[in-house]
Design brief:
Layout (H helix, E strand, L loop, with lengths): L2 H7 L1 H12 L5 H12 L3 H13 L2 H18 L4 H19 L2 H10 L7 H10 L4 H31 L3
Helix pairs in contact: 1-2, 2-3, 2-4, 3-4, 3-9, 4-9, 5-8, 5-9, 6-8, 7-8, 7-9, 8-9
Length: 165
C-alpha cells in the first residue's frame, strides 16, 4: 500500500498523520486536532493523537535546546541570526512565564493562540532553567487544557458550518 494512501485512508494512518501534524512548530495541537477531525477521525481518536504528537518534542526541547543552540553557534555560524531570534523569543516569552513559574508555564501553553504552545513553552522553560521533572507536568497540563479548548472550538466550528446549530 502506498504511504500516502495508508496515511489518508486507514484509521491508524490518520492517527499517525494527526500526530505528525501536531509535532510541527506553530501548527502544533491547535492545527493538528482540527486536521485529524477533518480527516474523518472521531474526536476520541483525534484528541489523543494530537496531544501525543504535540508532547513528543517537549522533553527533548527542555533538556537539549541549549546544547543544540551552542553546537549551531560553533559549527554553523551562518545560523547565528536564527539562533539569536529564537533565544530572544524564548526570553521574551519567558518573562511572561517567570513571574508565576510553573502555573505561568501551564497557562502559557494552554492558551491556543499563535506564539504559545508546547514548543514555545518548552523553549521558555529551558531558558528559565526549569527542571524537566517540574516543567513537563505544566506543559502536559497546558497541552491537555489547550486540547479541550480546541476540541470544543472544533466541534462548534463543524456544527456551525454544517448547519446543525
Amino acid at each position: 500500500m502506498e504511504l500516502f494512501q495508508f496515511l489518508t485512508t486507514t484509521t491508524t494512518g490518520k492517527c499517525l498523520l494527526t500526530m505528525l501534524v501536531s509535532m510541527i512548530p506553530i501548527i502544533e495541537l491547535r492545527g493538528g486536532l482540527p486536521f485529524g477531525v477533518a480527516l474523518g477521525l472521531p474526536y476520541y481518536l483525534a484528541f489523543p493523537a494530537a496531544v501525543a504528537g504535540n508532547l513528543i518534542p517537549a522533553p527533548f526541547i527542555i533538556v537539549y535546546i541549549r546544547r543544540v543552540f551552542g553546537l549551531m553557534r560553533k559549527y554553523l555560524p551562518r545560523l547565528n541570526g536564527l539562533v539569536d531570534r529564537l533565544e530572544k523569543k524564548a526570553h521574551l516569552k519567558g518573562k511572561k512565564v517567570q513571574k508565576y513559574q510553573y502555573l505561568g508555564l501551564w497557562l502559557f501553553v494552554a492558551i491556543p493562540l499563535p506564539g504559545t504552545g508546547a514548543w514555545t513553552g518548552s523553549l521558555a522553560a529551558a531558558f528559565l532553567g526549569m527542571r524537566l521533572k517540574k516543567a513537563m507536568p505544566a506543559v502536559v497540563l497546558g497541552v491537555l487544557t489547550a486540547g479541550c479548548i480546541m476540541l470544543g472550538l472544533t466541534h462548534v466550528g463543524i456544527n456551525l458550518f454544517s448547519g446543525t446549530v
